[in-house]
Amino acid sequence: MREKSLLYTFEALVNSLLREFIELETIKTSSEDNFIEFTNKKMETLRVELAIYSILGKHQYNLNHKIDNKPVEIEKSLEWIINYSCEVMNQSDMEQITSFKDRVHQSQTNIQTFLEDLGEGIESDYKKTLNFIEAESLLILGHSFHPYPKARDGFNKEDFKNYSPEYRQSFSLAWAIADQDVVLEKHEKDFDSTWINAIAIECLGAAEVEKLTKNNKKLVPIHPWQLSHIRNNHFVRDLESKNKISFFHKESKIKWISTSSIRSIYSKDCKYMLKFSMSLRLTNSIRHLQQVEVDRGIQVSDVFKTDEGIRLQEKWKKFKVLHEPAYAALKNEKGETAIDSIVSCRMNPFIKGEEESTVLLATLNQTSPKGRSILDNYTQREDSSYFVDWFTEFTKVVITPLLDSQANFGIFLGAHQQNIILKLNNNGFPTNLFFRDCQGTGYSEEGFKQYSPYSKEMALDNGNILTPELGQKIFCYYLIINTAFDTISHLSKISGQNETIFLHILNKSIRALKENGVKDSSCIDYLLNEQYLWVKGNYKCCLKEINENTMTSPADIYIPINNPIKGAASNV
User: Fold this and answer.
1) How many C-beta atoms surround the C-beta of residue 98 within 10 A?
2) pTM over 0.90
């Protein structure tokens, strides 16, 4: 499995790099001769044989690698390409370079560990109808365009097994018992303010919760891995010393399992999911929730209760947002929030049998180690019409409602493929869309005017009121480049059909939405007419240790790529 994990790592890293530097003179690609060649400043060349050439950049590679025409192992070519990337990105900070290489190695080792530990169980899962948590746990490879998609800085070996979703290990929550004045709680005005106690009663029992909350005490759920990090917080230690807060972790009736994001957890027996701050570095950043992010979750709940929000839901009845209407955290006596203690509440529709036949899109767009697709359960790969019909339905269920949310309702949902869950019918076709992660939601300037009177959390200076240009870059990157393009590449790979066939369908669906009438065509016009689309520079972020979550201007890490949708227009 080492060789396979190295190939997966090479693919995600190199494709991420190519997406950001495809037009460099030192990179030569031949789809006809099936190779890609890099030349460094020393005029050394790395030549790699392509297994699949993708016009959307999701290339796959063989093990035929040569440096200056001499065969080399993939480890050597991986090291070579990282050094080459430092040249083209003018990265000379040795500390950052070393950290980058360590994370690439860690990600590769983690993938290898998953493949070895889970073995044939992965293949078995690909041959059956999946439920929600099974699909979440099958995201073995992670982000398709990232230099270290499975790096997890902060887990030791025991943590890795206990809390990595791939292992489906269940665990009990930890809890804080705190004085009321050191607990911050906020929720959407119509949401049940006793949501924490409701979870606690399910986990611990009503009698235990009644005993723990005497004398005006409050309970706050804590991720068990995060507990030690919270207790190391200087003002939490101070509160403990004053007996204003205490903690416990014991076995409970309700057990939880990590979802693909790790910091969100799920139980099929609870109507809520929980999302925690985690002092863990995943992909580009430490995953602490920011208060402005969880406030945005409440914003979305407010917005969807307005007349326009209700109209959106009635228009797209098969589209459901998993709302995040409440959160809690610890605070000190000065009112300062411990961001490493924030926990957000997310609605959970995947209970009482509703979790069956629900598939995370990012998982659907991967193949198993033996090359099997989830869609192989429903059709033969030779049935080309199936995949065309599948993608046509996908645009109706996913792309059009999300694009319409922007064009007619002024709502930018962060719709990348790890936020999209599909309900599949007996033929494997998508019938329902579930969208999660409200904390990345933004609004157009017109949307702000429409919704701000109904949400006190909404303000011009909180970072999610987007100009048309910024909305185009960020929203279309997630929905089209990350979600639609990756889906196209997967369907092309398993069906053997050219990616342009699916691009034609995508182009047609976008045009149809505009022809039906929209209030704001800025994103649609950008997708149909602009020469370039903007893509997030994951490689640069990682190599230069840029934290996108704390940037003043997130658009600064976006890079232009050729727009293949515009090129598909003449064939529609």
Assistant:
1) 10
2) yes
